[in-house]
Amino acid sequence: MSVHIYDTAENESLFRIEEESGAAITVSVEGRTGRILSLFVPEENRRKGLGRLLISCAEKALAERNGKMIDTFFSDQNEDLTGFFRACGFTQEEEVPILSVSTETISRSPSVKRIIEQEHEGMEFQALSELFMVQWDELLEVLNDWNIKLNPRDINRFDDEISGVVYDSEFQPQTVVLCSCGERTLNVELLLSREGLDPEFMLCALQNMLVNMELKGGSAAFPTLTLIAANKGVTPLIEKLTMGDRVAQKKGSVLRFLKAVEPEAYADLSILEGTEDRDPERLWWEEIKDIPYQLNISYKMKRYRKLKEEESGPGIDFEKREDESGGLVSEENRRITNDNLELLSKLLPSDVKKNLKRPYYHGLVSGGTLLVWEIRSAEEETSESELICFREADASSGKEIFRDYTAEVAKSRVKRSFFELTGLNEPEKELLSTEGFTLTERESRDMVLSLGEMGKLPVLKKKPAAHVKPIKILSDKQYKRVIASCLFHGRKGLLQDIGYLPKEWFDMEVSSCCITDQRVDGVLLIHETGDGMLMIDLLFSIGSEYQRDLVMMMRYSLRAALEKYGGEKQVLIRRHTSAVSDLTKKLFPRYKGTAAVYGEREEELNDPSQ
After folding, report:
1. Please, are residues 420 and 444 in contact by the beta-carbon 8 Å criterion?
2. Which is more confident, 491 or 30?
């Protein structure tokens, strides 16, 4: 009897164990708990102990991964599984009520057709796949406020295209729908609105859930809609959708069975590593697409965990790759990381050094040649790269740096690289041109003024309103909500990674906000650069008085900055949009930016499957 284990390359938390007869078990690992996603034994080989063998092998594999518990979920209608798992030492931990409904019945319902065609003013549905990092945190906090205990690990099992959140006109989350895809079943595990809320929000969530379900195959792919742990508001809603058709509804329960992993019990089991006869290019979600309660892990949540794990920074990473002839190229090139920043401090400008600790900033150094870039629009299907700093020591190392840079940005699906740099010498310009950049000389987008010069503007001399405060008074929750509102309205200012930056990254005495009755309607974010200048990162406001509030925050922050730093302190204004450029031209008509070189080139997008 031969048993093999296969770890999946795309998702390190999933493994599958197969026996030579075709019996197989698939297990996901979250923390120290393993969850049996599927257990299959060919009918002709059942009642031969293969099921118990596979569970024992799964427990051994979990023990080797420091697992402590193993569990599984299945319907209470499956009496064979109930007896089987009890015999294997599992105990029933909980019973969750469910309501199953025919999606074909729902699709024929006149009520559903009206719901799908209905417009919901003042409401915005965002699928989980569209949420920014700060919104994930906020979603978990809101669910916790509603006594729904979830953590980022739990969120993984929900389909991030069908599940989502409904926000009101002030971008406050009001309704949440969380669905997982089972074997020809869509499991609605949570459909919840704030107590006493207008039912329109729940209808909006349901509308988008049904539309997104249709995009993924509709009733053909999901013949059954299952509501798990249905709350009080859901059952009447289902009654309305099915027109009270009891035949279309079936009540039951989902059972959870749990067992402690005992490492010493599996010492004599032999599990072989997977052989090469499987298709190595097969994606893990294809392997588990028909498994009930599959883990539908989104790119954002994987990146969220990775960033959390790497807050202290990865170790020094020497890059060694082979060229076509088999020789090593860029042997001395290394990525700039949090660990080697201090070692490279003589090469790095102080502001670049500070920014390299942020998630979208990357750098390479070889000898005295240095290249730093920022990934922009990283959460889109394709992204862009802006070169932030380039210093060339010699042509040879410069070419090697750009060879490695091209390989690095390909991993981030970069379609265009661009820069605006000052102080480039002729050899650096020549190399950039040789590397395919089209160069143009123009006025820099950056304009530097002193606080004293800004304070002369009449519009900023007046006293700010009482409802404008420093951001240091905001709680973490309030800060996250105003950042989520900025992102929802497509406003990031200068910061691609604003959803990752803590409140403390900004100057909390000079940065300001508009707050009324605990509601934050605007924010002006400023930080001190590594070069000692103040930089305006984001100016945002919503509400009927948003124009007045923008001016009020500028007044407050200018006064606070003058009091803290004095009139000689310099302020860097980046004219990153035409609106900002027009405003600065109107306010400061005599000021110009320094001469700069602008360049851009198209990058080749490779097929990720190759």
Report:
1. yes
2. 491
Q: Which pLDDT band, with edges at 50, 70 and 90, does 384 fall under? A: very high
- The CA distances from residue 214 to 102, 105, 109, 210, 291, in Å, are 14, 14, 15, 6, 20
Position 535 scores a pLDDT of 95
What's the sign of the alpha-carbon dihedral 204, 205, 207, 212? positive
Query: Which amino acid is it at 46?
Result: R
Q: What is the pLDDT of residues 29-81, one digit of tens each?
A: 877 888 887 788 888 888 888 888 899 989 988 888 888 999 887 777 777 78
Cβ proximity of 59 and 271 under 8 Å: no
pTM of the predicted protein model: 0.59
With a CB cutoff of 8 Å and minimum separation 6, the contacts of 598 are 418, 419, 420, 439, 440, 441, 442
Q: What's the distance, CA 350 to chain centroid?
A: 29
Confidence category of residue 228, pLDDT binned at 50, 70, 90? low
Q: How many residues does the chain have?
A: 610
CATH class of 3-95+257-285: alpha beta
Q: Where are the domains positioned within the chain? A: 3-95+257-285, 96-253, 341-444+598-602, 448-593
Looking at residue 12, its pLDDT comes to: 54
**Contact predicate 26/38, CB 8 Å:** yes
Q: Dihedral sign, CA of 232, 235, 241, 243? A: negative
Compute the half-sphere exposure of residue 43: CA atoms within 13 Å on the CB side of its CA: 0
Do the domains spanning 3-95+257-285 and 448-593 agree at the CATH topology level?
A: yes
Q: What percent of the chain has pLDDT over 70?
A: 80
Q: Among residues 204, 136, 118, which one has the least CA distance to residue 379?
A: 136
| CATH fourth-level superfamily of 341-444+598-602 | Gcn5-related N-acetyltransferase (GNAT) (3.40.630.30)
Q: In whole angstroms, give the CA distance from residue 274 to residue 10.
A: 15
Give the CA distances from residue 45 to residues 38, 50, 212, 355, 412, in Å, rounded to whole numbers and listed in that order. 17, 8, 40, 60, 47
Task: Retrieve residue 230's tokens.
Answer: 């249905």
Q: How far is it, in rounded angstroms, from Cα 600 to Cα 442?
A: 14
pLDDT confidence bin for 94, thresholds 50/70/90: confident
For domain 96-253, the question of CATH label 3.40.50.880 is answered with no
Provide the token pair at 575.
């004219």
pLDDT of residue 308: 43
How far is residue 582's CA from residue 575's CA, in Å, rounded to a whole number? Answer: 9
CB 383 within 8 A of CB 376: yes
Report domain 448-593's class.
alpha beta
